[in-house]
Each structure stands twice: as structure tokens, then as C-alpha cells.
């Protein structure tokens, strides 16, 4: 089961993501929803999710700054940046922070599904590697 935190200051975006994720993979669990960057950092510390879907522009703390802080608490966190901003500097910073993808709003279900499948593949590979290392003689 993939555990997900959603961070976006727009309620309808939060609800849309919840609905699309449930349609894509019903076994995944949304463990928290944040409306600002400070809430995002708190939720990541508390729940140690596998994935955060993060807007860039949020109150108090930007999504990118929240990712930077949260990675210290949850170093294996995968992030998908979902934003209305197509500026190269934002995409570049997201890549430098290790974001799995940079999606522009409004995101369609097929585009989100593709990104979630890629993250799920990375998580499975990491878990397989950890399990393999635990079983070494």
C-alpha cells in the first residue's frame, strides 16, 4: 500500500486528486491533506508517507521549500509537483530536489496515473532492494 500526502491550498484540487487516486488505485491510502507548506512538513514528519503530491505556491511556506525541509525527516519520500506554474526555474528546482514528476494543472487522470505508476515502480524497486539486503547471509 502506498501512503500519500496531498498538499494544495485549493480545496477543489485536493478533492479532485483524492477522487482520481481512488479511481486509479483503491488500495493506496491518503494519510494527510495539507493546505499550506507548514502543514505539509508536519504531516510528513507525522506519517512518513511514501509520496507527497505538492503544489508550489502555498501560504506560509512554498511547496518546494516544504519538500526540502521534509526530506530531512523522510529521506526516501517521493514527490510529484503539481502546479499552475510552467516557469523553468520552478521545474529546475523541483528536479534538483528529486521530484519524480512536474505536472501542470489541470492534470488529467491519465497523466496522473502515469506519474503514480512510475512512483509505484520506484517504491517497489526500493522495497525489493531493501528486502534482498535484509536476506543476505
Describe this structure in words.
The protein has 137 residues and is of the alpha/beta class. It has one domain (3-134): Response regulator (Rossmann fold, 3-Layer(aba) Sandwich), CATH 3.40.50.2300. The chain has five helices and five strands. It has helices spanning 11-24, 37-47, 63-73, 88-96, 109-134, and strands at 3-7, 29-34, 51-54, 78-83, 101-104. The protein has a five-stranded parallel sheet, sandwiched between helices. Helix 2 (37-47) packs parallel to helix 3 (63-73). The protein is globular. The model has no long low-confidence stretch (mean pLDDT 91).
- Provide the gyration radius in Å: 15 Å
Mean pLDDT: 91
| CATH class assignment | Alpha Beta
> Into which percentage range does the β-strand content fall?
15-25%
Assembly status: single chain
Amino acid at each position: 500500500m502506498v501512503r500519500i500526502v496531498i498538499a494544495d491550498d485549493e480545496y477543489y484540487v485536493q478533492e479532485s486528486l483524492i477522487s482520481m487516486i481512488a479511481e486509479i488505485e483503491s488500495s493506496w491510502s491518503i494519510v494527510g491533506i495539507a493546505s499550506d507548506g507548514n502543514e505539509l512538513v508536519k504531516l510528513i514528519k507525522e506519517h512518513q508517507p511514501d509520496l507527497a503530491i505538492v503544489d508550489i505556491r502555498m501560504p506560509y511556506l512554498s511547496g518546494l521549500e516544504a519538500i526540502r525541509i521534509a526530506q530531512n525527516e523522510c529521506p526516501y519520500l517521493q514527490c510529484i509537483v503539481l502546479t499552475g506554474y510552467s516557469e523553468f526555474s520552478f521545474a529546475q528546482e523541483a528536479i534538483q530536489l528529486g521530484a519524480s514528476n512536474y505536472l501542470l494543472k489541470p492534470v488529467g487522470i491519465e497523466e496522473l496515473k502515469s506519474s503514480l505508476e512510475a512512483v509505484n515502480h520506484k517504491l517497489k524497486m526500493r522495497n525489493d532492494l531493501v528486502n534482498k539486503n535484509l536476506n543476505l547471509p
